[in-house]
Amino acid sequence: MTTYLDLIPKTDVEQSAKDFKSDQEVRWCPGCGDYSILSNVQGFLPELGLARENIVFVSGIGCSSRFPYYMNTFGMHSIHGRAPAIATGLAVSRPDLSIWVITGDGDALSIGGNHLIHALRRNVNLKILLFNNRIYGLTKGQYSPTSEQGKITKSTPEGSLDYSFNPVSLALGAEATFVARTIDSDRKHMTDVLRAAANHEGTALVEIYQNCNIFNDGAWEPLKDGDTRDDVMMRLVDGEPIRFGKDMEKGVIRTADGHIAVANVAEVGEDAVIRHDAHAKDPGLAFALSRLSNPRTLENTPIGVFRDIERPSYDRLVRDQLAEVQAKQGTGDLQALIDGGDTWIVS
Amino acid sequence: MSKQVVSVNRVVIRFAGDSGDGMQLTGDRFTSETAGMGNDLSTLPDFPAEIRAPAGTVPGVSAFQLAFADHDITTPGDAPNVLVAMNPAALKANVKDLPRGADLIVNTDEFTKRNLEKVGYATNPLEDGSLEAFNVHAIALTSQTVEALKDFDLSKKEAERSKNMYALGLLCWLYSRPAEGTRAFLEKKFAKKPEILAANLAAFEAGWSFGETTEIFSVQYEVAKASDLPQGRYRNISGNPALAYGLIAASKRSGLPLFLGSYPITPASDILHELARNHRFGVTTFQAEDEIAGIGSAIGAAYGGALAVTTTSGPGIALKSESIGLAVSLELPLIIIDVQRGGPSTGLPTKTEQSDLLQAMFGRNGESPVPIVAPQSPSDCFYAALEAARIAVEYRTPVFLLSDGYIANGSEPWRVPEVDELPVIDPAFATGPNHVTDSGEAVFWPYKRDEDTLARPWAIPGTKGLEHRIGGLEKADGTGNISYDPDNHDRMVRLRQAKVDAIAKTIPPLEVDDPDGDARVLVLGWGSTYGPIGAACEITRRTGAKVAQAHLRHLNPFPSNLGEVLRSYDTVLVPEMNLGQLAMLLRARYLVDIQSITQVRGMPFKSTDLVSAITAAVQSL
Ligand code: SF4
């Protein structure tokens, strides 16, 4: 089967990360996690071998949404929350483009929540990178839809009361065909996830845990600190048993009541550990995995590709339908259309 | 029995019944037959917002008015000569509009005690003398239909449903309309339901022969072909399909694929439906998750090089405002169609109004100029769409097209143009560098403007060497890079305004219709008031009064000679279906006093109301 990538013109010169850097000065705070994401994306894109002019980055509003300015591709920095809608119109019109949406937790999940879920449900051919820093950075530090309950911020001096969104659970609930999570500080992991996303036809949602060192420093620290990391983070690898822990002593098992849980492998035996299947049609297990983590302590946090299934993308279906109509009805006679059925002559 | 045939010049019929009685269909069919006979015509459908409002109630009445004539007419008429009332509610809701001596056809079967009580008739108006001023034709339409269909295998309820066809047959006989079109229409509509088809045909024929044989009607009328219409091939059309065709034509004449991003809303949805029926022209219709995604997707498509459109009504525009601002800032071609309806808020979804003019002008944050065009009649929607597309593409700007519920649903004959004679639109995409830097390097500047139009280049993704970034943040003049420089912002705000103002150079001067050339009163309108204003001016002139008429197609920018025109009259009357929005713009812009004539009843102006206002203005000089 031809993939969507076959429709995109290829570069005729060797590319490097440098080719994807624009001449604009990067204006994030020093130490912001966005820098490493930018450099990872710039480092990864040459691998795709696509013509640079056929790559488009569309973003909304927020710190992360400045991203397109720094990419030497086509780009649009749009308005708050609307990037998936804008990118949908572009994707439907232009099968020859590789389209990336850059968004944040406020942009995608709060003001733009509606567009996000509908892009996911339609399976529009977009690669959505959701920079999750659990805070509003650009507006200087209010809590966000992914902030843990009880978050003390300028707008919530006594602690936030909302229950938080889990972007991976949300995406799976919207029947996203590709859902993954990675971390700003793990270059190799992020590159692997970006590669899988780029190769996926349809919407790929990649949640990237990103550190905002100014307003929410250390939000993901347990997943980064060498002392705690292995203990709390589980790496999902397709086809492999889901095991983690300093000595890989923990594993995910099915419980008697049909749920899943983290257990001590020594106690339950290796055979009891579930193998990860990202290609499973049923999103049930992926969803269950997304619910294992504790939003406060970050214990049992899976990273990697939760789900990656094949389903025709919306834009492909649109094009196919158009082709089918034209095959049956021809490409239309404008004069006949405006004449309509009943005309009369005044002489 | 052959009856006397009386020739008349102009007839206004109103069909009125329950929402479920099929009055819109009846009106449409009668209109088609009338159009086919070569009469000039104008229609006004008027229906409630509810799909099936409570049966037998006044709010549930659905009506369709049609004027047809042997000469050029511009309005569906102020008052009907004939009212067909299918039940007491329809009578109650419409009888006040009926002039003395008018024909009134009532369906007596529905005038039961219960139905009369439902609408507050204490006594039966058919019996209490309250209808004496009219020429009442009391007919048992329902039972006669049932009787005519007694040989069909239909329940009484099913048979009753054909009463609108019975009424249509009767009216077609009364006004000597041919039956072929309706026959063909029914055959197509009920091709898969032969029993229903046969019943409807039989009801139609029965209504026709009833007219021929009954003594209730002593005369039959005929209206000759309209002979003063320009030569050519005609069809009947309403505003929404005309808009859709205009957009497809603009797509063909520009070579740009058409993309519509839209969310269903009354009274604009029919444009979405019409375009969805025409995918074969390479049209993409995207029914978005909300109004914002409707315009968002269109902005994305425009960025990709499509002729992008979003369609909605007033409440949808409110939701799209921020995105329109983005399109202003990105300077991308985009057509925004607002089929206006009564407001504020949800307002009157199925009724007409012109109250979004100021929203289109100013309804955004910041200095955010957007050109505005407005069609003046149903068929004019076609040309207005082409004009909106021309401005959008040539000037790289969002453009408003302000239609309204009246012209969207109303219809009139349209002299169909030859496609080859329609204007050509040149997208003129950027293909290479447009600037040389001080160091001699050829580069692409996304905000370097055309000297004449001040439009920026439209450089679509996939064009090698033109990679660039644009956005809603203020951009440096020329390079398009983010700039917070005060002087630059001041310059960019003025440039965006100057670009829109410069469109006036390509707009024909406003023409004034003043037969004798010495009128001192000008009536100036915009949009759908064209018909009523035209009719009113004509009637006024017949009394010997002198009045000039002009109509604005472009509301932003105005035609360059507008100030001069306004200043050359002692009195300028501006009728609008709002509280004086155009009047406010004119006063502010030209410091000319304007006499505002306003009405917000959800219905078009009656020419007679305008005649009184014009006459008073002429006499007071
Ligand atoms: S505020 Fe936070 S997210 Fe924004 S640039 Fe600074 S560190 Fe990064």
Fold topology:
The complex is a heterodimer of chains A (347) and B (621).
Chain A lengths: L33 H11 L10 E5 L14 E4 L5 H11 L4 E7 H7 L1 H10 L4 E6 L34 H7 L4 E6 L3 H12 L5 E6 L11 H4 L4 H4 E4 L6 E2 L5 E5 L5 E5 H4 L15 H7 L10 E8 L5 H16 L4 H6 L4 E3 L1
Helix pairs in contact in A: 1-6, 2-11, 3-4
Chain B lengths: L3 E4 L2 E9 L4 H14 L3 E7 L14 E9 L12 E4 L2 H7 L8 E5 L5 H6 L16 E5 L1 H8 L7 H5 L2 H12 L5 H10 L4 H20 L5 E4 L9 E7 H16 L3 E5 L6 H8 L7 E4 L3 H13 L3 E6 L1 H17 L3 E7 L16 H6 L9 E2 L6 H16 L2 E7 H5 L1 E5 L19 E2 L5 E2 L25 E3 L14 H17 L9 E2 L7 E6 L3 H13 L5 E5 L1 E3 L5 H6 L3 E6 L4 H10 L4 E4 L8 H13 L2
Parallel strand pairs in B: 1-8, 2-5, 5-6, 6-7, 10-11, 10-12, 12-13, 13-15, 14-15, 21-22, 21-24, 24-25
Antiparallel strand pairs in B: 2-4, 3-4, 9-16, 14-23, 17-18, 20-22
Bound molecules: iron/sulfur cluster.
The site of iron/sulfur cluster has 11 residues of chain A, from loops.
Most extensive protein-chain contact, per-chain counts = A-B, 59 and 75 residues
**How many β-strands of chain B, per DSSP?**
25
Shape of chain A: globular
* Separation of the first and last Cα atoms of chain B: 58 Å
> Class by helix and strand content of chain A?
alpha/beta
What features would you describe in this structure?
The complex is a heterodimer of chains A (347) and B (621). Chain A contains 12 helices and 12 strands. By secondary structure, chain A is an alpha/beta fold. In chain A, helix 3 (105-111) packs across helix 4 (113-122). The mean pLDDT of chain A is 97. Chain B has a 7-stranded mixed sheet with strand order 11-10-12-13-15-14-23, sandwiched between helices. Chain B has a 6-stranded mixed sheet with strand order 3-4-2-5-6-7, sandwiched between helices. At the A-B interface, strand 1, strand 2, helix 2, helix 4 and helix 11 of A face helix 1, strand 9, helix 9, helix 11 and helix 12 of B. Bound molecules: iron/sulfur cluster. Residues 28-29, 32, 34, 63, 133, 137, 212-215 of chain A line the site of iron/sulfur cluster (SF4).
